[in-house]
From TrEMBL:
A divalent metal cation binds at residues 16-17, 108. Residues 10-196 form the RNase H type-2 domain. Pfam families: RNase_HII (PF01351). Coiled coil: none annotated. This is Ribonuclease HII. It comes from Ilyomonas limi. One of its GO terms (biological process) is mismatch repair. It is an enzyme of class 3 (hydrolase). It is found in: Cytoplasm. One of its GO terms (molecular function) is RNA binding. It comes from the Bacteria. Keywords: Cytoplasm, Endonuclease, Hydrolase, Manganese, Metal-binding, Nuclease. GO terms for cellular component: cytoplasm; ribonuclease H2 complex. Its EC number is 3.1.26.4.
Amino acid sequence: MLQSFHQEILIEAGCDEAGRGCYAGPVFAAAVILPKSFQHPVLNDSKQLTATQRYELRKVIEKEAITYAIAMIDEGEIDRINILQASFKAMHLALDELKIIPELLLIDGNRFTPYKSIPHHCIVEGDGKYASIAAASILAKTYRDDYMLRLHNEHPHYNWKKNKGYGTKEHRAAIDVHGLCKYHRKSFNIGGNNID
């Protein structure tokens, strides 16, 4: 069972992103404030769950969260500011949309650009430790997967409905045949095709 909170006094928001290591498509981020009493036996890092479990948990999170928000930064902006900064910016945009201002941020990972004057803790593998970060990881992942399914319909030969834009062997082979499309991140070294 994940820890419900980091401390008992301040209002905490968990933040995580999805799609940072992809060849194509945007990076998504989510911010979630859960009730202190929130617990769920299946809740975990989104990567440890099946797609069915993630979508079932998304319904629970959206129903029971005090507030949540999702944001994205597209591949063009990723190329302009780099993927790390784009991940932080997506988290900031999600935080902007929360209906309650958090007093402490729990960030998955080891780095973060401070958000306003709100203190934060960077927690490596935090999505496997704290409920609010796990919830954010699930929202970011499922919303991004939905988005990549829509892009798949435009460019089915890359099979994004399956690989979601990650650099699988199949995706790399499709790039070799069809080249890069407008949704690929041109600043990434994709199969030796770095055209930054």
